[in-house]
Amino acid sequence: MGSSRTPKSGGNGVSTRWVSVFCIASFFFGVLVVNRFWALPVVVKVNREASSVDQSEVLHPINCEKKEADILSQVSQTHDVIMTLDKTISSLEMRLAAARAAKANNEEGSPVVTKSGADHLKERQKVFFVLGIITAFSSRKRRDSIRESWMPKGEELRKLEMEKGIIIRFVIGHSASPGGILDRAIEAEEEQHKDFLRLNHIEGYHELSSKTQIYFSTAVAKWDADFYIKVDDDVHVNLGMVGSTLARHRSKSRVYIGCMKSGPVLAQKGTKYHEPEYWKFGEEGSKYFRHATGQIYAISKDLATYISINKHILHRYANEDVSLGSWFIGLDVEHIDDRSLCCATPPDCEWKAQAGNPCAASFDWSCSGICKSVERMEEVHQRCGEGDGAIWHTSF
Question: Where found, per UniProt (predicted)?
């Protein structure tokens, strides 16, 4: 009989093959279970963190406000930095303009400024305001009438500079023939009074716009002032009131102060104040833009510096007050209309003085200055003046 083969069995009767299969299956099952539970904490952790963020945002909205406050604080700090940089740039531009003006005066043969730009910058005196009295060769009597009324003389003029930071000078250029009799007469007058600012400019009535540009450029180069003033030599001025007026605007960087007006553009030839470029202002009968009347006005340091830097490209119209106003069109400039700078002569300015509110400046509109100023300047001073001691007792 044939014999039959049977599989080998363990002692418990389980086949070896099934033991091997069971072991392999157990191994893979173990791997699956381990991977499953190891990944779970990570998922749970991520879910918990997301849940924590969601709950934080829901339960603590104050965090958003805090973030917004932090952003606003950073914006404010950035703004402060920008403002500081702006002031620094403005100061550097002013110093650059002063150096350029000093250099230009040297190169063009100015009879006044003969030192180098660097030396000139070192000597620039910090002052409150510079008041330039625009005058002419033929106006000696007008100058004397001012010296005998509202303008300090000699040591008083020096004291005003040292104690109050106020510079007053008669502003004049030179004749078409430098060194001639007209120039020698001014030199002799300067030797006597020491109250002139000489410009590198040829005098002439139709050159007032150019003279105004050069005055501001020269003054910026010579003095570091908060304000620069231009006034005609037939206007009465109360220095204390002028100082008080300017002090109210001392913290502003770009101000243009005067009696603002907007008169007609005169196209007809032969008329006083004729504007040859009338067509630039529109149709016939148009008016000028707002600008300060030319008898007296003040500008802040930044604006005087701007004129000095750009004087070679600033257009000059026939009338200097119009020219000045045009230079500020398009700039961020505050126009201040101060009627105290254009009072009429007595009785108008006298009534105001008696009421304890003297005018800063007085003149007659009909004459564009005090009519017959040589004869009347002292009278106006007596009736409309703030008192000779007022300037010394006024704090700025």
Answer: Golgi apparatus membrane
Domain ranges of the chain: 92-390
Q: What φ, ψ does residue 356 adopt, rounded to 5°?
A: 85, 15
| The length of the chain, given as a count of residues | 396
The kind and range of the H/E element at 166 are strand 166-174
Per-residue confidence (pLDDT) for residue 27, from 0 to 100 = 65
Q: What 3-state class would DSSP assign to 199?
A: strand
Phi, psi of 258 (to 5 degrees): 175, -170
Q: Is 394 exposed, middle or buried (0-12, 13-18, 19+ CB in 10 A)?
A: middle
What three-state secondary structure class fits 368? coil
Burial of 140 (0-12, 13-18, 19+ CB in 10 A): middle
Give 281's contacts (C-beta < 8 A, 6+ positions apart). Answer: 265, 275, 287, 288
Which of 136, 125, 192 minimizes the C-alpha distance to 162? Answer: 125
Strands 196-202 and 166-174: parallel
Q: How far apart are CA 361 and CA 241, in angstroms?
A: 8
pLDDT band of 95, cuts 50, 70, 90: low
- The pLDDT value recorded for residue 53 is 45
Tell me the average pLDDT across 124-140: 96
Region 11-23 average pLDDT: 58
Answer whether residue 129 shows pLDDT above 80.
yes
pLDDT computed for residue 221 by the predictor: 96
d(CA 189, CA 168): 15
Q: Is the pLDDT of residue 109 over 50?
A: no
17: tokens are: 């093959």
Q: Residue type for 250, please?
A: R
Give the C-alpha separation, 200 to 211, whole Å: 9
Total Cβ atoms within 10 A of residue 169: 21
Name the 3-class secondary structure at 204: coil
Q: What is the pTM of this model?
A: 0.73
Residue 101: band (very low, low, confident or very high) from pLDDT cuts 50, 70, 90: low
User: How far, in whole angstroms, is CA 366 from its chain's centroid?
Assistant: 34
CA-to-CA distance for 44 and 34, rounded, in angstroms?
A: 16
